[in-house]
Design a protein that fits this description.
Length: about 280
């Protein structure tokens, strides 16, 4: 039987996209593309989704009761023949210019050289393709810090696809330690390091930040609020005196709680993009 793919489009915007994406990955989606007002999930297989569709319908109905009007809208299902699937999936990924220094592209596109650092990311199962505001703001702040003075060493907590670690290596950071507690993310990051020809400058690890003893002049963590609050103590201890800490994955309303928990830091810059906030903090000596 010919292999087919199911594509599900859901009208959804804001953080609820992350909630829906997690659910769809659990249901077997192997690729999700988030846009401004909708997301698309791809399911491999020969089935037409007979079992999946009622599950998704029930789940989204529940979400519509929780989230305010209009955040979760209509759904559409489409069956894609295998021969058309690559084009359907690949068509969503375009090269993206981020900040002054970066261009992020999927490996099947060779963007025009324009003096920027090229980061290839295979859009796979790990977060960090460069489309999300939090990733983009982190890269912009990394760019700013490295332009002032290269930190030499850096820690990337929750590396996902490895995009921030690769960005730091591209800007000349000689030693980046990149952590993630998800083996799927670590595999994706490993593949992306290879794709970008980065060997030696970035070390991947599943160690928890609490087990580290070294300090770094630059620490970046783009993770959800609850995790950031939980790891505030260990994260704070890993930053050098006068070192920089970039925190992202926060909604605007989360910022006061984060500022209270990460005491001993001065706010140097805050970037608000859509509903997301990213903070650049500097540790007081
Ligand atoms: C939002 S993604 C960020 C990916 C990438 N750094 C970026 O900026 O696009 C967060 C990542 O943090 C990882 N993560 C969540 N909790 C963690 C923890 N306690 N320790 C290490 N990594 C964690 C997740 O597996 C995920 O890959």
């Amino acid at each position: 039987m010919a292999v087919r793919w199911l594509e599900l489009s859901v009208q959804a915007q804001g953080p609820v996209q992350d909630t829906i994406s997690s659910f769809l990955v659990e249901q077997g989606s192997t690729g999700i593309v988030c846009g401004d007002r909708s997301l698309r999930a791809f399911f491999p297989g020969t089935a037409d989704g007979t079992a999946l569709r009622p599950l998704v319908r029930r789940y989204l109905r529940g979400l519509r009761d929780i989230f305010p009007d209009g955040l979760v809208g209509r759904t559409r299902w489409r069956v894609i023949a295998e021969k058309n699937w690559h084009d359907a999936w690949r068509g969503y990924f375009k090269p993206q210019r981020i900040g002054r220094s970066f261009i992020v592209a999927p490996p099947w596109i060779r963007p025009k050289e324009d003096g920027r650092h090229l980061i290839f990311i295979e859009p796979a199962m790990a977060f960090g393709t460069g489309t999300h505001e939090t990733t983009r703001c982190c890269l912009e702040l990394i760019d700013q810090i490295c332009a002032e003075k290269s930190p030499g060493k850096a820690l990337d907590v929750g590396t996902g696809s490895g995009i921030l670690a690769i960005g730091m290596a591209r800007l000349g950071v000689r030693e980046v330690l990149a952590l993630d507690n998800d083996p799927v993310a670590l595999n994706a990051a490993r593949a992306n390091l290879q794709l970008n020809g980065i060997d030696g400058a970035v070390t991947l690890s599943d160690a928890s930040v609490g087990r580290l003893r070294r300090r770094f002049p630059l620490v970046v963590a783009n993770i959800i609020l609850e995790t950031l609050l939980e790891m505030a103590g260990p994260l704070t201890r890993r930053v050098d005196a006068r070192g920089s800490l970039i925190l992202s994955g926060l909604l605007h309303d989360h910022v006061p709680a984060v500022r209270r928990r990460f005491h001993g830091f001065r706010l140097v810059r805050r970037k608000d993009r859509k509903e997301w906030s990213t903070l650049l903090l500097r540790k007081e000596p």
